[in-house]
Specification:
The structure holds two protein chains of two kinds. By secondary structure, chain A is an alpha/beta fold. Chain A is built from 19 helices and 13 strands. About 8% of the residues of chain A have low confidence. By secondary structure, chain B is mainly alpha-helical. Classes of the chains: A alpha/beta, B mainly alpha.
């Protein structure tokens, strides 16, 4: 071999090694710089409303903060309108609102990519109620930026959910709980006195109404819900299981309780709806698919979140003034269950302007803004006294009527299983989905699921209380 | 590198200077390739040997080949029949009428890693179950290979047909050539969404409306959720999208064939089919080779159609790797899956080059 050849190969090795070491250490260097910078800045007093213009942006220096927001239903327009109101009050701040994928896991994928690169391209993140545990290491403590003054106005359960190791990583924005939407006109037409109180009653009512309506409308189905293999199925299935006394997958004492007869019975019952009172394609439905069918007048019952209420009352809706909402039916336990949802606003610790971003977050989640979102978008506020506000109750009577549903909603086991909640949820919804598609029966699926959960979390198994 | 392997021959001073100059001029381009292609590839290889967690500050440990073991471990166990105590014969499942065997979950090993059921088969009167630690990955390899073979075959066939048609002279040929590229030009994610709407599981979806109108089916076929219909649907979307690309490559090949060959064949009395077999097809082989290599390697890397249309119900190799990265934050496992894809593509590339006799110095 020529001598020059060896020299060439050696220099190649050196280049590769240098690049590896240099690139690896430089990212660490920049990332450690940012948090110390943020901590050194003076956290300023901020009011929850827009009255006091802040001086945090170095007195007139133009600042841009970017917010990654959801775009389900009317979310994006409402957020943009809120951001505009903030910008009107703070002329030197520009708030750019970006939409993110509808499906919750896809949205998480986008966020994780930002966090992996410790990017300062996004400042504010709309995070799900199940993410504070997983994402806490990338978020700032909002209590240092004025949130401690307003935390008491919000539901304590949600504030507690968002507090990780003493840090408040997300300020609650709106809360959610599963509801049963039903067609009041059809119930009257078929002689039912009121909405169903048990799942069996729902199934038989849906069957009767469907059989009757099919004469005129071959696309009519009794009950639509979210059956696709995604986080939404975890929400729906948790409601069936908990309302039947089957527990909450993993309880707060970190015991795996899902493998029991009542849970299996609840999931088997849901599997029987597919193709009978629910379309076979319900195993591919997410929130918007169910809402589209319902809003076109092709369903008697729908399980969905509160956001669908104002859309169903919209001028282009075929079910306007023909429906109402009620708590979800009960199973063997005697009480219905509604999965706790809801979103919070968080500020990334890699942001260049954490103080301005925190101020924007506190403004967007302030009482006035939450009231507008409640009235226009039927997005449930997290500020407790808005449930007694006359304007809110007039626009969305169900909100004030069903306050108990929202305060007693069942939480997914995200805190108990952090940082593995994603894996736990995926294992659960894939098990349920295999029952819905007829691949497995519920008992085998739950047995396999129990083993999977043991692998993932290392917890013990037990029975639900 | 071939240059260096040649026997040492006497080089003049000018030649040596030119050689050094050549190296110097190539160095910037080489550095760019190093940074953009080789370095990321190297980090994937490196990460596949660790337990790195995506988007986290957890410490990283070197774990050797355990990620690969987790992806590729397969175990075959016999499923003994369940004996009915009353009759002493094999029990029959009352619901399905099939003979009953032990359940795989009781038979497959659980330590140190749990083996999940992949499939069952019978051989010489005995029943066996194949278990894998990562059945999703094994299935994704199988699905990707089926997808590749079928979609490339259809694309070549249809692409050739389209190319032959567009090659012949007719009015509006220019316009036809432009419009035929439209499916290829639309971004895959956008066209996948359009297809998702058309493949809708109720009578809001175009295909269900058509099938219902023709009297086939009840209008409720869930194309994207029924196991037997998922791959055909995905293949249809991909064939629709990529046939224009194949047609374009083959058209370029067709244009290089001199027309006097055809005239000579006409004079000799050869029919159209004979012309195709003896003239067109052999002379098209180089372009066909290029098109095949392109499409096969692309099809093995398929991601967007699987991600948009099937998301978490069925994976391709690439969408499995992405899912591991984002949903489970398992950087190590995801990188190992990527390396497996890389190796598989390398094997295919080598097979093509050898079989189709592509010239290498």
């Amino acid at each position: 071999m020529k001598k020059g050849n060896t020299w060439f190969l050696v220099s190649l090795m050196i280049i590769v090694a240098t690049l590896t070491v240099a690139c690896g250490s430089s990212t660490e260097a920049t990332s450690t710089a940012k948090p110390t910078e943020a901590a050194a800045q003076n956290p300023t007093e901020t009011a929850s409303g827009a009255q006091t213009p802040t001086e945090t942006a170095a007195g007139g220096e133009a600042v841009t903060v970017r917010l990654l927001s959801g775009a389900v239903g009317q979310e994006l327009e409402l957020t943009k309108a809120s951001a505009q109101r903030y910008m009107d009050a703070h002329p030197n701040v520009t708030v750019e609102v970006f939409d993110t994928p509808d499906a919750v896991q896809d949205r998480l994928g986008v966020y994780l990519q930002y966090f992996e690169t410790k990017s300062s391209d996004a400042d504010l993140y709309q995070i799900d109620v199940i993410w504070p545990g997983d994402l806490a290491e990338h978020l700032i403590d909002l209590n240092q930026y004025g949130a401690d003054k307003v935390a008491a106005e919000h539901f304590p359960a949600i504030i507690q959910n968002n507090t990780v190791d003493g840090k408040l990583v997300g300020i609650p924005w709106f809360t959610d709980a599963g509801l049963l939407y039903y067609r009041t006109d059809l119930l009257e037409k078929y002689g039912f006195s009121g909405p169903p109180t048990t799942w069996d009653e729902l199934a038989s009512m849906a069957q009767t109404i469907q059989d009757g309506e099919r004469a005129d409308n071959p696309d009519f189905w009794g009950f639509v819900w979210q059956g696709n293999a995604y986080e939404g199925l975890t929400c729906d299935a948790l409601e069936w299981v908990d309302s039947n006394g089957g527990g909450t997958i993993i309880n707060t004492d970190k015991v795996i309780t899902i493998n029991n007869d009542k849970a299996a019975a609840a999931i088997d019952a849901a599997g029987k709806w597919v193709g009978t009172i629910s379309p076979p394609g319900v195993t591919g439905f997410q929130e918007e698919d169910a809402r589209n069918m319902w809003q076109a007048g092709n369903a008697a019952f729908m399980r969905n979140w509160p956001y669908a209420y104002s859309l169903s009352q919209g001028s282009d809706s075929a079910v306007k003034d023909k429906f109402d909402v009620t708590p979800l039916p009960a199973g063997d336990s005697g009480h219905g269950a509604a999965t706790l949802g809801g979103w919070q606003l968080a500020v990334s610790k890699y942001s260049n302007h954490p103080d301005v971003a925190a101020d924007v977050a506190l403004f967007l989640t302030s009482r006035d803004e939450q009231k507008i979102r409640a009235i226009k978008g039927s997005m449930n506020p997290t500020i407790m006294d808005l449930y007694k506000d006359p304007d809110v109750c007039a626009a969305s009577p169900f909100m004030c009527k069903l306050e108990d549903v929202f305060t007693s909603a069942v939480a997914r086991p995200s805190t108990a299983t952090a940082p593995h909640y994603n894996e736990v949820s995926t294992a659960f919804f894939q098990a349920v989905h295999s029952v819905l598609t007829g691949d497995k029966d519920a008992q085998s699926a739950l047995e396999a699921l129990e083993l999977d959960l043991q692998d993932i979390t290392g917890f013990q198994t037990g029975q639900p209380q | 590198m071939t240059r260096i392997r040649k026997k040492k021959r006497h080089m003049s001073k000018t030649a040596k200077r030119e050689e050094r100059l050549a190296f110097t001029m190539l160095l910037p381009a080489f550095l760019i390739i190093l940074i953009i292609a080789i370095y990321p590839l190297f980090t994937v290889f490196r990460d596949s040997l660790t337990d790195k967690v995506f988007a986290s500050n957890d410490p990283v440990h070197f774990v050797g080949l355990s990620n690969y073991a987790e992806l590729l471990s397969i175990n075959i166990k016999e499923l003994p029949p369940v004996i009915d105590q009353a009759t002493g014969q094999q029990a029959i499942d009352p619901n399905t009428g099939q003979p009953l065997y032990q359940r795989p979950i009781d038979v497959l090993p659980r330590e140190p890693r749990r083996y999940r059921e992949l499939s069952q088969f019978s051989l010489f009167g005995k029943h066996y179950v194949i278990g894998a630690t990562e059945p999703d990955f094994i299935n994704s390899v199988k699905d990707t290979l089926i997808f590749t073979v079928v979609s490339v075959f259809l694309e070549v066939l249809l692409g050739l047909g389209v190319a032959l048609v567009v090659n012949s002279g007719f009015r509006g040929r220019g316009l036809m050539r432009a419009t035929m590229l439209v499916p290829w030009a639309i971004i895959t994610v956008v066209s996948a969404r359009i297809w998702q709407g058309m493949l809708g599981p109720t009578r809001a979806g175009l295909f269900n409306v058509i099938l219902y109108g023709l009297g086939l089916g009840d209008g409720q076929t869930a194309f994207l959720r029924e196991a037997s219909l998922q791959l055909p649907a995905i293949i249809a979307v991909d064939v629709w999208k990529t046939t224009p690309f194949m047609a374009l490559l083959l058209l370029a090949g067709l244009q290089t064939i001199p027309t006097d060959l055809y005239e000579a064949a006409e004079v000799d009395g050869a029919g159209k089919l004979r012309q195709f077999i003896s003239i067109t097809f052999p002379l098209l082989t180089p372009a066909l080779t290029v098109a095949l290599i392109f499409r096969t390697l692309d099809a093995l890397r398929v991601f967007d159609v699987f991600q948009v249309l099937l998301s978490r119900t069925r994976y391709s190799m690439a969408s499995f790797a992405q899912d591991q990265l984002i949903q489970y934050q398992a950087s190590g496992l995801s990188s190992a899956a990527s390396v497996v894809i890389f190796v598989l593509i390398l094997i295919f590339a080598v097979i093509y080059i050898r079989a189709l006799g592509v010239e290498t110095e």
